[in-house]
Amino acid sequence: MNIQQEKILNGGITLTIDDQEVTVPPGTTILSAAGALGTVIPTICYHDHLTAYGICRLCVVEVEQARVLQPACVAEAREGMTVHTRNTRVERSRRTILEMLDSAVNLEEAPEIQAQLDDYGANRERFENGERRSLPIIDDNPMFLRDYSQCVLCWRCVQVCADDAQYTYAINFSGRGFETSIDTFFEQSLPESTCVFCGQCVDVCPTGALKPKREWLLEQGQTPDEIMQMTRMERRRRKT
Amino acid sequence: MSFDLPTPPELDLDPLVARLNPYAPSGRTALLPALHAAQELYGYLPEPVAAEVGRRLGVALADVYGVIDFYAMFYKEPVGKQIVRVCGDPPCAQAGGGEVLEALSKHLGVQAGEVTTDGEWTLERAPCLGRCEHAPAVMIDDLPLAQATSDQPQALLSAEWEQVTSRVDGDLRALTRNCGNGAPTTIEAYEAGGGYAGLRKAVSEMAPADVVEEIKASGLVGRGGAAFPPGVKWEGAASAPGELKYVINNADESEPGTFKDRVLLEDDPHSSLEGMIIAGYATGAEKGYIYIRGEYRNAENILGVAIEEAKRQGVLGAKILGSDFGFEIEIRRGAGAYICGEETALFESIEGKRGFPRIKPPFPTTHGLFGKPTVVNNVETLANVPLIIRDGSQTFRQVGTEQSPGTKLFCLSGDVARPGLYEVPFGVPLRHLLDDLAGGVVGGELQGILFGGAAGAFATQEHLDVKLTFEDLSEAGLPLGSGVVMIFNESRDMRQVLSGLAHFFADESCGKCYPCQLGTQRQYEILLEMANGHVLSGDVDKLTDVGWTMVDASLCGLGQTAATAVLSAIETWPALFSENGAHGATSND
Ligand SMILES: Cc1cc2nc3c(=O)[nH]c(=O)nc-3n(C[C@H](O)[C@H](O)[C@H](O)COP(=O)(O)O)c2cc1C
Ligand code: SF4
Ligand code: SF4
Q1: Matching CATH number, B82-153, of 3.50.50.60, 3.40.30.10, 1.10.287.130, 2.60.120.10
Q2: Which CATH architecture has domain B407-489?
């Protein structure tokens, strides 16, 4: 018997997810309990190695007796709980969130979200009159580009730069509400900021908002040789 | 970190260095107070000033910037020597707030959000200023003006204008016994009227657990909007493990149409102070915070004086009234963010962060401010506490109903003869409040009443006999909310009203979770188009889907209620949302 099974034996929690019973250790989220049954609940902001803040709300599920839908990534399984991971109520919220997101953000380079849009039958024209968050590409360092018109505000980059990994605090938010954006101190360039170019934010970005410069230049039609030359020159410039 | 930023020659940082001394040792929790202090020195928060604040308090610069940019009352750009704020929310909008803003804009030669070329004035369209009984409300810096008109902009700016005094009335004057006299109640007057007798009784005759029991037995229900019993909260915090605990007096009052807490704080500051001290005694907390909205400078000053009076009188500080119980109170000033009235966002704000609500559970009673057990109560809730302890829960229960004991404050505004604050026993019908006390609807027949606040729902003629209790209102589908009763006569364009409410939520959404960050924006866009006469066939469907998604999937109460008024209007006035529907005088058929 492994530790997990032992834990379940001593104080496991039994709940029903989509008519299937499952027993999990205390403290398990609905998301992982569903995972144990092979049920996939869609997420955008959630990342296995980062603090879950329940921001995108795509993972909401219906828990019987609860007043509103519950975010599966943070809501814990409770004894006797009955969960519906995909009924019409849940679908309405997920579809509307996806439709609104698609109308505000450029999701062309977010294949997972594209698949979710298809899965939930999202109407991509529904909010086409709405304001889009179109922001200019920021090309201020030799390592990566920032294209915040592709930013879904999942918070991951801010988290890894701060207490979830790097403790560098180079980036935070500006604005609020629909106008929220990821920013440095008074919009200074990354080289002027405390950024150490560890690249972790680029690794966790779920869309094309943070992109290695090499990848971007290849997309722009540059050859690898040209790129090598350019970055070498940039590095030399930085030294002087 | 690199802090050697270029300093413009005219910016002398020396005064700031000294000004930050008292804040520096506290670190991040002092960030908002330090930014307020810095802004007082320089008028705004330029980059080098923000950097100095961050350096002295040990807060990362990007975080300092994040905080400055979150709060509407912190400025990154230079502002005028004086700031004129004109309320643009209902009911000020319909009382001519827009015209006043326009007149000021013409007079000063700037648009809202701009500074005059001589650097004297900044003009702003403000969210509800909590002075709805004097609509349209205007503030010149910290000075509130009543019933502004658009014909004399110069008189407004020179503040040769009537200032706001509270208008208080009602069937019964328990909570408001010391209100409406035109001046704050001193501690002597407060004590002469039986004030601090509740605290005296608690510390000398009752064990903390008895106080909790008494509050539970009173059946008191929280007045901040969530309608939760304080007794249960107090019990939770009292039994939570840990030495350090906190009591918070939530005075962030920013719900459009609400001004009751302001009147209590300005006219009778000791009542909620006494409530806080009793809460501290009951729960084992030794420190309390009053979180007051940034625009309530007058109330903040009055509270500051009251705290000094209380210390002098020995009802606050160490060894209160000769007992072993000690309690201190700190005032924290908000900076223009409605969301900071939400209890967990309020914690974040006191901790020096952007006002992002936290996921619940864990709940504040076990994991609140600084992660410690915390009791958060509304000003009006706390003002009830001294009366309950002094007279006993049975006496308290003699007024009101079984499930809604006591009295309730209602904020009447809009098209009514006598807008103001009214105290009534729970259980009187809405009609009594509207007609008998406030003198009835003016300017035409009643079209609708926004009940509970911007996050409330619409009542119509057929609701006038509903009894004002938690239970009756909930059955009628009307949230009591913060006690807002905003009246619209038949001439009002309800599409304009809805678009105004939607504007408020889009402006105030913190942006943390997707449904509200995106939904408040889309909801506003659709309603603004409607208000301009452009209604598309899919609009009701869109509003319904966006609305229910916000209700169902948002992270906190702001998003969860940002569509309730709209959804209620769709049900009440379907014609309002049809392509050729009239948007003025709407009918119910
Ligand atoms: C967006 C939002 C704003 C709020 N603003 C206030 C406020 O200004 N004052 C207040 O007392 N409660 C406010 N609340 C409710 C608080 O979260 C909390 O429930 C209340 O302060 C508890 O006090 P009570 O139990 O005495 O009612 C707000 C809630 C939300 C969701
Ligand atoms: S690359 Fe810079 S901004 Fe990104 S996580 Fe690392 S330090 Fe932070
Ligand atoms: S509901 Fe709105 S205010 Fe509340 S966390 Fe979400 S975005 Fe912020």
Answers
A1: 3.40.30.10
A2: Roll (3.10)
Q: Which structure tokens are listed for B297?
A: 């400078």
- A144-239 has which fold? Alpha-Beta Plaits (3.30.70)
Q: Where in chain A is the domain with CATH 3.10.20.740?
A: 3-86
**What is the rounded distance in angstroms from the CA atom of residue B76 to the CA atom of residue B253?**
25
- How far, in Å, CA of A35 to CA of A43, rounded? 12
Check if B507 contacts A (Cβ < 8 Å).
yes
Structure tokens at B416: 């009514």
Fold classified for B182-397: Rossmann fold (3.40.50)
Judge residue B582's burial from the number of C-beta atoms within 10 Å of its C-beta, 0-12 exposed, 13-18 middle, 19 or more buried.
middle
Put simply, the answer to whether B62 touches A171 (Cβ < 8 Å) is yes
Chain B residue numbers with beta carbons less than 8 Å from the beta carbon of A92 are 545, 548-549, 552
Residues with a CB atom less than 6 Å from ligand 3: B 339, 357, 509-513, 516-517, 554-556, 558-559
- pLDDT for residue A235: 56
> In chain A, where does the domain assigned CATH 3.30.70.20 lie?
144-239
Say whether pLDDT at A234 is over 70: no
Q: How confident is the model at residue B588 (pLDDT cuts 50, 70, 90)?
A: very low
**Among all ligands shown, which has an atom nearest to the Cα of B368?**
1
- For B305-360, the pLDDT digits (tens) are 999 999 999 999 999 999 999 999 999 999 999 999 999 999 999 999 999 999 99
Architecture of domain B494-577: Up-down Bundle (1.20)
Work out whether strand A60-63 and strand A20-24 pair parallel, antiparallel, or are unpaired. unpaired
pLDDT in tens, B508-556: 999 999 999 999 999 999 999 999 999 999 999 999 999 999 999 999 9
Q: Do residues B517 and A178 touch, judged by C-beta distance below 8 A?
A: yes
CB contact under 8 A, B65 and A172: yes
pLDDT class of A142 with cuts at 50, 70, 90: very high
Q: How far apart are CA B479 and CA B472, in angstroms?
A: 10
Q: Is residue B101 over pLDDT 80?
A: yes
Q: Is the CB of B511 under 6 A from ligand 1?
A: no
Give the HSE-up count for residue B537: Cα atoms under 13 Å, Cβ half-sphere.
0
CA atoms of B76 and B291, how far apart (whole Å): 24
The per-residue DSSP string of B30-50 comes to GHHHHHHHHHHHHSS--HHHH
ipTM: 0.94
Q: Where are the domains of chain B?
A: 14-70, 82-153, 182-397, 407-489, 494-577
Q: From 3.90.1150.10, 3.10.28.10, 3.20.170.30, 3.10.20.740, which CATH number describes the A3-86 domain?
A: 3.10.20.740
Print burial letters for B14-50: b (CB count within 10 Å at least 16), e (below 16).
eebeebbeebeeeebbbbbbbbbbbbeebbbbbbbbb
Task: Return d(Cα B467, Cα B429) in angstroms, integer.
Answer: 4
Ligand 1 pocket residue status of B339, Cβ below 6 Å? yes
What is the C-alpha separation between B61 and A192, in angstroms, rounded?
Answer: 12
What are B209-214's contacts with CB under 8 Å, separation 24+?
A: B209/B238, B209/B282, B211/B278, B211/B281, B211/B282, B211/B389, B212/B238, B212/B282, B212/B283, B214/B388, B214/B389, B214/B392, B214/B393
User: Measured in angstroms, how far is the CA atom of residue B276 from the centroid of ligand 3?
Assistant: 28
Report residue B333 as tokens: 């000033």
All residues of chain A having their beta carbon less than 8 Å from the beta carbon of residue B508 are 177
